[in-house]
């Protein structure tokens, strides 16, 4: 028995009003000899494949890039101490004047002292945990942005802190991630981490400066 659609559904029947996306499309009946893979249009079950959800323009990563970083970040999350300490040692190496802002760390004048300090490790892990929370919430854009802005805002209470200091974390972050990931830090991953840390730092800066929120629409 052949099935005809639309035209044969009598008025008032239970079929009437069923959305066209739940009915097999007309071509399914008209071209029975075409192999499924060559048929145009929706999947054979009759329902069009779900369109990918529109990407939120506030996150500058594609679906694939978000997937890649969440996978790659797992290796960093297993090495938070090592990566965080390496990041801070580099930050202080390149910006010696920052040490004075850290009440608990300002006595750590040499690289060796910094590498061995439990206090530095503790602070580094706390900063890495913030980055972890941001990277793990890239799918929940509002939550991710609110969180990063709140991190930025909390830096307002630090005497002498300026918003441009945040950007000084960019290179140390990338260098520390590279060191931890080693040969897993491919060119593709480097580009994804660069985009991600740029987005994170810009959002933290916006929170520090209390910039108006950008809507998703
Ligand atoms: C990715 C960028 C950064 C993140 C995610 C971050 C995160 C944090 C977190 C989680 C804390 C702990 C206390 C709190 O939350 O209020 C903190 C404190 C602090 N941060 Fe940052 N931070 C960043 C960049 C920087 C930079 C570049 C500096 C450079 C000077 C800095 C200076 C400080 C200072 C001085 C404190 C206070 C430390 C204390 O308690 O003695 N932060 N930051």
TrEMBL record:
List residues of the Globin domain: 60-209
Renumbered to this chain, region (Disordered) spans 1-60
Q: Does the keyword RNA-binding apply?
A: no
Pfam family of the protein (one)? Globin
Q: Which UniProt keywords apply?
A: Heme, Iron, Metal-binding, Oxygen transport, Transport
Q: Name one GO molecular function term.
A: oxygen binding
Query: Which intervals of the chain form a coiled coil?
Result: none
- Gene3D superfamilies associated with the record: Globins
- Domain of life, per UniProt, equals Eukaryota
Q: Please tell me whether the keyword Metal-binding is annotated for this protein.
A: yes
Instruction: Write out the similarity annotation.
Output: Belongs to the globin family.
What PANTHER family does the database record attribute to this sequence?
Answer: BLR2807 PROTEIN (PTHR46458), GLOBIN FAMILY PROFILE DOMAIN-CONTAINING PROTEIN (PTHR46458:SF5)
Name-wise, this protein is Neuroglobin
């Amino acid at each position: 028995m052949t099935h005809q659609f639309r035209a044969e559904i009598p008025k008032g029947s239970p079929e009437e009003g069923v959305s066209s996306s739940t009915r097999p499309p007309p071509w399914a009946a008209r071209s029975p000899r075409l192999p499924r893979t060559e048929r145009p249009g929706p999947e054979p079950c009759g329902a069009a494949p779900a369109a990918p959800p529109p990407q939120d323009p506030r996150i500058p990563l594609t679906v694939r890039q978000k997937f890649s970083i969440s996978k790659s970040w797992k290796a960093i999350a297993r090495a938070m101490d090592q990566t965080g300490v390496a990041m801070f040692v580099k930050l202080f190496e390149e910006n010696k004047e920052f040490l004075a802002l850290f009440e608990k760390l300002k006595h750590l004048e040499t690289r060796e002292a910094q590498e061995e300090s439990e206090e530095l490790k503790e602070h580094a892990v706390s900063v890495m945990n913030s980055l972890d929370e941001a990277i793990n919430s890239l799918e929940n854009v509002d939550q991710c942005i609110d969180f990063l802005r709140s991190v930025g805002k909390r830096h307002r209470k630090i005497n002498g802190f300026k918003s441009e200091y945040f950007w000084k974390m960019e290179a140390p972050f990338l260098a520390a991630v590279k060191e931890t990931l080693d040969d897993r830090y491919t060119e593709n991953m480097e580009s994804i981490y660069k985009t991600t840390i740029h987005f994170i730092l810009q959002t933290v800066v916006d929170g520090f400066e209390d910039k108006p929120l950008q809507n998703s629409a």
